[in-house]
């Protein structure tokens, strides 16, 4: 289906977009694994995906939630220019203290970028993905972007190549994307209704002309959807990023979800609006709020029936390095790289990653055995669990040192990641920041339990008082295995009458139950 002409009415264009496309029904990620839930790229889901697709996602930390515990990515900031303006974006250069899209500390030439890639890959054997995500739009800087991909592919052909784009110029570069072996493309699509888009995008620059308002949004959405169809038609995996903006596009994103699924998108990543005034964005300065964690989860849940949702996104900087949620870019500044003796060991990297895959397969088999053993007793009970982790799929972070908590849903379907909650540090240089404790507890108050490596007496008592059970007996153990073991014991307590199960979200009611059980 071609893109509608710019003289079509908004209603006609919207109607055209709702046409079901047969190409997409075969390519989107909505398959169900043996646990009864959608699986994308996890070891347990290997049999649910075509072999070619499995190879693309198995060690991609963005396309596989399970893989993000083990594999790293990096972004190189070679694309400074942008062809649209978003009300939630402020591209900042030489900014070391913010973690959000569009922010970088160094802009690189393609030649500098490939040297940085080789340095990172030589020091971080689990780094499997090289992405270009800005600080502007990669396809508004096509020469720099594709020169970087060309150089990286020649120097390190084992790396997966990705780009993230707003999609305005996407249809013009499909052949180049395929030519340079870019197998993963992320498109930010926040609307398919131009009237909503006009509230998000002040202007676009298209074919040497600036457009504003509904006309600009209409051109943008037409080009985005056309580019998505063209990519999936070439077998290129596509992830859709959408920014949830309460009161503007929050409910509309359900329609966006269905539309991109129809056009073959593999994953949909609905992210919360970042709108702190200090960031200097239009939304931040006019008081537009971001969604709460519960609002975000509710929207993600409502979309998951149509396609698989990415919930582990960290809204990375355009110069991010390391595991998702990890910041190692300071180790690889241009000045430091110039002093490094870079030795790229392709065979060593391959052996390291093979060992990771063996460990992942063993863990998946163990999880399946546990679920099979106790599936009959799980019933319909679901609980939320918060986990303090430094990565590697382990419970290995002190409560007071956690900058975020990963949240999982425990049920008969196993352990399902549903998101992360950023928090302020409780321990600040050897002393406790009591003011932050209340905000931390509020962030995870809908959880039944929090798993930590260690916790002090004061926060332990405060969590119990709030109805959240602190558990440190599984310190440095795997998240899946430990949470399932705790869940089995929790069900035994429920079945024996020792405690009463209360649905998550009712912390005030759980508080009394937990205190009485203690």
Walk me through what this model shows:
The protein is an alpha/beta fold and 518 residues long. It folds into two domains: 13-338, Aldolase class I (TIM Barrel, Alpha-Beta Barrel); 367-517, Dinitrogenase iron-molybdenum cofactor biosynthesis domain (Nucleotidyltransferase, domain 5). Helix content is 37%, strand content 16%. The chain contains 17 helices and 19 strands. It has helices at residues 10-17, 22-25, 51-57, 110-123, 142-155, 174-179, 194-197, 213-233, 253-262, 282-286, 293-303, 334-338, 346-378, 434-443, 457-465, 479-496, 507-517; strands spanning 72-75, 84-85, 92-93, 103-104, 127-132, 160-165, 182-188, 203-206, 209-212, 237-244, 267-272, 321-322, 383-387, 404-411, 414-422, 427-428, 431-432, 449-451, 469-471. Strands 11-10-7-6-5-1-12 form a seven-stranded mixed β-sheet. Strands 15-14-13-18-19 form a five-stranded mixed β-sheet. Strands 2-8-9 form a three-stranded antiparallel β-sheet. A hairpin with a 2-residue loop joins strand 16 (427-428) and strand 17 (431-432). Helix 4 runs parallel beside helix 5 (142-155) and helix 13 (346-378) runs parallel beside helix 16. It is globular and about 70 Å long.
């Amino acid at each position: 289906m071609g893109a509608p002409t710019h003289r079509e009415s908004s209603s006609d264009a919207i109607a055209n977009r709702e046409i079901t496309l047969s190409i997409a029904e075969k390519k989107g990620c909505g398959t169900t694994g043996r646990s009864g839930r959608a699986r994308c790229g996890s070891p347990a889901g290997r049999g649910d995906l075509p072999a070619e697709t499995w190879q693309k996602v198995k060690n991609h930390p963005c396309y596989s939630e399970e893989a993000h515990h083990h594999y790293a990515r990096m972004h190189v900031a070679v694309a400074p220019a942008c062809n649209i303006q978003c009300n939630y974006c402020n591209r900042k250069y030489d900014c070391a203290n913010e973690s959000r899209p569009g922010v970088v500390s160094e802009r690189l030439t393609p030649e500098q970028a490939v040297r940085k890639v080789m340095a990172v890959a030589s020091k971080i054997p689990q780094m499997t993905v090289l992405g270009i995500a800005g600080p502007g739009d990669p396809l508004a800087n096509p020469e720099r972007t594709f020169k970087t991909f060309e150089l990286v592919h020649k120097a390190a052909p084992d790396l997966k190549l990705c780009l993230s784009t707003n999609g305005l110029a996407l249809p013009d570069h499909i052949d180049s994307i395929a030519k340079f072996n870019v197998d993963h493309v992320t498109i930010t699509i926040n609307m398919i209704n131009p009237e909503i888009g006009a509230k998000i995008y002040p202007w676009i620059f298209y074919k040497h002309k600036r457009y504003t308002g509904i006309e600009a949004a209409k051109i943008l959405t037409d080009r985005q959807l056309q580019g998505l169809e063209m990519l999936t038609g070439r077998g290129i995996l596509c992830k859709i990023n959408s920014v949830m903006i309460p009161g503007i596009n929050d409910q509309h994103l359900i329609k966006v979800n269905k539309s991109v699924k129809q056009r073959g998108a593999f994953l949909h990543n609905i992210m919360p609006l970042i709108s702190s005034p200090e960031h200097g964005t239009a939304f931040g300065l006019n008081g537009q709020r971001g969604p709460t964690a519960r609002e975000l989860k509710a929207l993600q849940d409502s979309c998951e029936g149509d396609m698989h949702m990415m919930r582990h996104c960290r809204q990375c900087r355009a110069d991010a390095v390391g595991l998702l949620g990890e910041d190692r870019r300071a180790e690889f500044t241009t000045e430091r790289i110039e002093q490094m003796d870079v030795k790229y060991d392709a065979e060593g990297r391959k052996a390291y990653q093979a060992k990771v895959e063996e460990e992942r397969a063993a863990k998946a088999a163990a999880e399946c055995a546990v679920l099979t053993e106790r599936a009959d007793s799980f019933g319909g009970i679901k609980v939320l669990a918060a986990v303090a982790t430094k990565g590697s799929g382990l419970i290995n972070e002190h409560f007071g040192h956690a900058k975020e908590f990963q949240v999982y849903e425990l049920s008969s379907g196993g352990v399902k990641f549903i998101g992360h909650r950023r928090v302020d540090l409780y321990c600040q240089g050897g002393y406790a920041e009591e003011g932050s404790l209340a905000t931390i507890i509020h962030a995870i108050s809908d959880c039944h339990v929090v798993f930590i490596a260690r916790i002090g007496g004061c926060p332990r008592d405060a969590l119990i008082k709030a109805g959240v059970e602190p558990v440190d007996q599984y310190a440095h153990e795997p998240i899946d295995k430990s949470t399932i073991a705790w869940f089995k014991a929790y069900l035994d307590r429920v079945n024996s009458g020792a405690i009463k199960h209360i649905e998550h979200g009712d912390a005030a009611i759980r508080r009394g139950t937990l205190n009485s059980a203690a």
